[in-house]
């Protein structure tokens, strides 16, 4: 994939899931700001088994 398509939200969430698997972690508390906050929200919604999200510093449109 090239260009802005690489920044699809589902891809960013999958990046976090893959990073957790790489580090052999099943759960996390993801704190995000700005775009990271949006990723944290989407991760919590799509993968509740991973843990919680505290993206309190993000603007939500």
From TrEMBL:
Entries under InterPro entries matching the protein: AB_hydrolase_1, AB_hydrolase_fold
Domain AB hydrolase-1: 8-49
Superkingdom of origin: Eukaryota
Pfam families: Abhydrolase_1 (PF00561)
Protein name: AB hydrolase-1 domain-containing protein
């Amino acid at each position: 994939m090239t260009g802005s398509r690489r920044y699809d939200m589902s891809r960013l969430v999958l990046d976090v899931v893959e990073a957790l698997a790489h580090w052999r972690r099943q759960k996390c508390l993801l704190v995000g700001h700005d775009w990271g906050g949006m990723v944290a929200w989407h991760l919590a919604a799509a993968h509740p088994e991973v843990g919680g999200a505290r993206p309190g510093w993000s603007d939500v449109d």
